[in-house]
Write a structure and sequence with these properties.
This protein is mostly beta strands and 778 residues long. The protein has four helices and 47 strands. The strands form eleven sheets. It has a 22-stranded antiparallel barrel. The chain has a five-stranded mixed beta sheet with strand order 3-8-9-6-7. It has a three-stranded antiparallel beta sheet with strand order 15-46-45, with no helix packed on it. A hairpin with a 2-residue loop joins strand 20 and strand 21. The chain is globular, with a radius of gyration of 27 Å.
Length: 778
């Protein structure tokens, strides 16, 4: 399954050189020997609420523009799980595509399915905060760039951004006619299409419409006829935007979007059997012997059950009922901008969003309990629903006082209501000796007939005032920049757990939290091309309550203090770019998840308690990014993230034992290298891209030391672009692409919860995918 380290290093080095041979046949006219390559392009970001050059912005930021997203065939945030940005970690919750776990710098909220649980990394689309991790796997709608802001961003980006912010910026209407169309097909019965139309302005109004369809068949087939396979998706999205510019100093942008993401979870395989070396007894044994409550015997596997810890299964061994999970998201936002003078812009962002999820997850068959022997029920069907709606209003003032002071100030209001329920019926039944099974009556899986494990509702209200100012004193050739700011936040949260194990309850929580989070940055321009900075920032993540707890146990907020030093530099006439950052953070009251899986009759219960760890969690690391324009045609890039985490031992609420705990999905070492080649060819342009991404093994759970596998993913794309058709006709592009080009397979989520009953089970990444695309641009 895994390649040797030596081979991996050879492949990484080869990636940087792979594009070079293309020049032998693609370069139509060699450049003069004394001609230097053109410099690297400037990258514009909005991390400080104003457009600035990335190299002049004293924050650790990684940027993926639209071309980078195309090169990697990124169609949703799910695709960034390959490690395109080493410091950004994305994984499914459990094996479900319905909700994503997003982490930066060791800030990773593991359980994403709780209405009263907050993110540690804020996700924003055009400045609008998305309150839930559900629906984040939806198709991307014409994204211009993705900015990954690392470290606490509480001053300008709000609460719950102690690890950083993921900011998606979309293309806006231009008022001039333009159209881009995309159509593609690939393996696994995949296909994708896009249509983006800019309409000519009518008076002061410009309109833009975007539509996207992205679909893929199952990675693992389901042998039960008529049921869906595993790892499939069908994502569809539509957005319309209207821009009104009645005067030169006023702009109003109104946008509305709707998306439907149908998906099935990735198959959970049995990776090993009886890893604890228990005594094996026949499958039809009526009892299992235990000592002091700990099993010392284990049933033999059914002859139908397969153990495979090396590669993803093409066809599941056990057929189970499985239908689409469906995520419906929609929203509307209004952006107003008024510029009364050249030195001041007043903004308003008003937004309303909804997400509704119906989850169907029957991924494990007989690979996890309940598997209780002859004539017993098995195959846990995890059924859940989540419904959320949010309203937010933000006012901003962005301006300057003379030539020395730039400032940002604002007011923020956020209101959210979220509710959920969950049920876990079994769908299959063994015969007496495990040589066959039957499918049970589906009635308990139908909403309205389910036995409800939990049902909860939570409400959140957040109010904030924030501001920061940058002063450039008349010293050191105007090279010194001092920024100071802060945010005062008041969070009110309440909730009720109204049903547990199908019984009516009335467990509640009600909290009110106030925080002031300051930030100070000192930056210095060593010269026009080299900038250094030092930053101090605080942040926090609100507390809440676990809806998976039997008593709705609440937990408090966690607070972080972060120190960062960084370098932004361009060299060799802007042909070489090197950026670096080193950080050290201390987090108090870290929110740690402990889970306990219990078998209750023919069903299972996953009880989860979230505990605030005692003492100080220490997070430290280094982030490096480099880019080089080797020739006018060839560009090489590389990035690296080192992250070290230390969490104080914490008492397990189920066992009472103080144990070591961990940060999930955070590799100690991760890096990515890429090569891009672009040159004229036969009156068109030839483009080639390849990237390689490595990450160390990580934990999948806070409480288990057992690790997942390390990963090494290579993606590639070649394209012939700017193909002319006729006068006034579209420019065409034909591209071949592949994700996971080397078909590397690794376990990204390994669960040891059922070692004493059957063995470890887990999930593999998606195998190699590839396809062809045609693009037309008018």
């Amino acid at each position: 399954m895994h390649r040797q380290n030596k081979l991996r290093l050879q492949l990484l080095l080869g990636t940087a050189l792979l594009a070079a041979p293309f020049s032998a046949f693609a370069q139509t006219a060699p450049a003069p020997a004394d001609a230097a390559p053109a410099g690297l392009d400037d990258i514009v970001v909005t991390a400080t609420k104003r457009e600035t050059n990335l190299q002049d912005t004293p924050i650790s930021i990684s940027v993926l523009n639209s071309e980078a997203l195309e090169n990697r065939h990124v169609q949703s945030l799910m695709d960034l799980a390959d490690g395109a940005v080493p410091g950004l970690r994305i994984a499914t919750f459990e094996a479900r595509q319905s909700a994503l776990t997003i982490g930066i710098r060791g800030i990773v909220p593991n359980d994403a399915n709780q209405p009263a649980r907050e993110q540690g990394v804020g996700v924003y689309v055009d400045g609008v905060y998305l309150g839930r991790q559900h629906g984040l796997g939806a198709a991307l709608l014409d994204v211009e760039r993705i900015e990954v802001l690392k470290g606490p961003q509480g001053t300008l980006f709000g609460r719950n951004t102690e690890g950083g912010a993921l900011s998606l910026v979309t293309r806006k209407p231009t008022g001039e006619f333009g159209m881009r169309a995309v159509a593609g097909v690939g393996n696994l019965n995949s296909y994708n299409s896009e249509l983006h139309v800019d309409f000519p302005a009518i008076d002061d109004f410009a309109v833009k419409v975007d539509g996207v369809i992205s679909a893929q068949g199952p990675v693992t087939k389901n042998p039960l006829p008529g049921e869906e396979g595993f790892g499939a998706y069908d994502r569809r999205g539509l957005r319309a935007q209207v821009r009104w510019t009645p005067t030169d100093n006023f702009t109003a942008d109104l946008a509305a979007d709707i998306s439907k993401d149908k998906n099935t979870p990735f198959y959970s395989q049995l990776l090993n059997y009886n890893p604890n070396g228990l005594t094996v007894v026949p499958f039809n044994s009526t009892t299992i012997r235990s000592v002091n409550g700990v099993p010392v015997e284990i049933r033999a596997l059914s002859p139908l059950v397969q153990v495979n810890g090396d590669s993803i299964m093409d066809v599941a061994d056990i057929g189970v009922p499985q239908q689409w999970s469906v995520d419906d998201t929609k929203g509307v936002d209004l952006h107003l901008s008024y510029r009364p003078s050249d030195d001041l812009e007043l903004r308003s962002i008003t937004a309303y969003r909804e997400v509704a999820v119906e989850q169907y997850d029957n991924i494990a068959g007989a690979h996890r309990p309940p598997i209780v022997g002859p004539n017993s029920n098995f195959s846990r069907y995890s059924l859940a629903g989540l419904w959320q709606h949010q309203f937010s209003q933000e006012f901003q003032a962005v301006g300057s006082l003379g030539d020395r002071i730039d400032y940002v100030g604002g007011l923020y209001y956020f209101k959210e209501t979220a509710s959920d329920d969950a049920s876990t019926p079994s769908t299959n039944r063994w015969n007496a000796d495990g040589t066959g099974y039957t499918i049970l009556d589906p009635t308990p899986t139908i909403r309205g007939f389910r036995s409800i494990d939990r049902e909860s509702r939570a409400e959140s209200e957040s109010k904030a005032i924030y501001g920061q100012a940058t002063w450039t004193p008349a010293v050191l050739n105007d090279g010194l920049h001092i920024t100071a700011g802060g945010r005062f936040t008041q969070d009110d949260k309440s909730g009720v757990l109204s049903k547990v194990s199908n019984a009516v309850t009335n467990f509640t929580f009600d909290t009110k939290t106030e925080r002031f989070n300051p930030m100070v940055t000192v930056a210095y321009d060593v010269n026009h091309d080299v900038n250094v900075y030092a930053k101090y920032a605080e942040g926090y993540r609100a507390g809440g309550a676990s809806s998976r707890s039997l008593t709705y146990r609440s937990f408090g907020p966690e607070d972080i203090v972060s120190y960062e030093m960084g370098l932004k530099s361009d060299w060799l006439d802007n042909r070489l770019r090197v950026n670096a950052a080193a950080f050290y953070s201390e987090r108090e009251n870290s929110q740690i998840d402990f889970s306990l899986v219990t078998v209750i009759g023919a069903s299972t219960r996953n009880t989860l308690e979230t505990i605030n760890a005692p003492g100080t969690t220490k997070l430290k690391g280094v982030e490096l990014e480099g880019m080089a324009r080797v020739t006018d045609a060839l560009t090489l890039s590389a990035s690296y993230a080192y992250t070290n985490t230390e969490v104080p031992p914490t008492r397990n609420p189920f066992s009472g034992v103080v144990q070591q705990v961990f940060i999930a999905y955070t590799p100690k070492n991760a890096f990515s290298v890429a090569a891009d080649y672009d040159t004229p060819l036969f009156g068109a342009n030839f483009k080639a891209h390849i990237d390689a991404n490595y990450a160390d093994a990580t934990q999948a759970f806070d409480q288990f030391e057992l690790k997942n596998d390390s990963s090494f993913i290579v993606n590639g794309r070649v394209a012939l672009t700017d193909i002319t058709t006729r006068d006034g006709g579209p420019l065409l592009e034909v591209a071949l692409w592949s994700r996971n080009l080397l078909d590397e397979q690794y376990v990204y989520r390994r669960d040891p919860s059922n070692r004493g009953v059957i063995g470890d089970y887990g999930n593999f990444n998606t195998p190699r995918t590839f396809g062809i695309e045609l693009r037309a641009t008018y």
